[in-house]
Outer membrane protein assembly factor BamB (Mucilaginibacter lappiensis), 479 residues
Amino acid sequence: MVQNLFSIVNGMMKYFFKGIALLTFLAVFAGCNNGTAIKEIKVGLHNNNELKIQIDVLTGSPVDAYAEYWVDKGADTTKQVSPVSKNTAQHRLVLCNIVPKTNYAYHIVTVVNGAKTVSKTYTFSSHELPLFLQEQFTAKSASENHIPAEFKDGLMLINKRYAPGVAYLVDYKGQIKWYHMIDNLGFKVIHFTKDHTLLSILGRNDEPTSYGSEILEINLEGDTLLHLKKGQGDFKQTIHHEILKNTSNQIVTLFVDQKIMDLSTVGGGKKDTVNGDGIMVMDKAGKQLWKWSVFDVMDPFKDPKLLKTKKDWMHANSLNYDKDGNYLISFYNNGQIWKVDAHTGKVIWKFGKGGTIAMPAECNFTQAHAAHINSEGNLMFFDNGVEKHQSGVFAMKLDQQQKTSTIDLHIQLPKEVFNGRMGSAYMINDTSVLCCCSKRHIVVLSDRKGVLLWTMETAVPTYRAIFVKSSELSPYLKP
């Protein structure tokens, strides 16, 4: 074990010094008397990341500048373009979508009053991925023709939940196209935002599976936009399972709500602790703007198993928005999905066994994860299928006025990928669904009949596999 740890540390040190070497050896200087011309170019790794190349460009005066780059095969017909650095003399251009162990060519384009000037062509070579990132994902399919074009035109967001934490964007071939690593914490939960950023809950290895005490938001260049730690502002609670933004760009998360209660009447202590769940909205400084708790709407004493469940009474495991902006929250322990008014905190309806919306008999799900409104406007969730030992997916048409529901989609996954905890399911198009079977270390693409079109084994037990479309990744990444 010690020898293995030494090997990992030694490999990471080599990775670090290799990045330093790249910065040293690929420095290019170009002097010129023209005040707007390029005076200096330096090339290296951005944030010591092998799949992000940083080009620092110094110009004689403020201009707009960007890089065009391509695989160096003697032709530049498939150029990729960096984001534009505007009206400055010191430009930091970050090139993403880098393929390991590949030779690239590039030139710098400067723009003054609409007139473009293209520099001469330079080159750099990318390195292979470090050992700890190799062979993380193994993708298979019976026939590539069965894989929808929409799935090929996007990437999967996957997170490693223990330290050192890694967030990955992976293509359908299992190739890592982007990653971000943190040393001492794991990415417990991660979400791709409407602002094309990655918002995450960070936690230590000794914190439970999807629980953490820090919030991190980074952009696709890997730069930190927000980093909040428990103890800052009103951020006093442990958070878990979900991290989102609302329409006001505020942070929305689930938190552990601890309540001291007299449980002596049911065989507990006079000052016993019941752990419930709540929804908390904060600004980016950690100021609490809104809070809701299950204790506001439900009496723990009505749970006959309270002494057994008090340490994790309800176990909320996902949070999202209905079409009207109110919250959808799912609970593992009671197997229900609730709709909660985002202003008053009132429970509008409960879906599941003992809920307020009637279900067809065929909708016999047991525990649910990743509840959300899909692209067809239906309530969709991953069915853990604990009682029948077979996981699946449901998409339900709800009539909220009549309090009724019908099944729009029901996928029964093969029993070999039964996933009793965690998991997710998201539509890729109207005929296929991407499912994450976390406990099985596998992500699968299924058709509407439950036939697997594609599978990917993962070296990490990711909490979810979130599909991100190519349009949401531009201009940084191209699947």
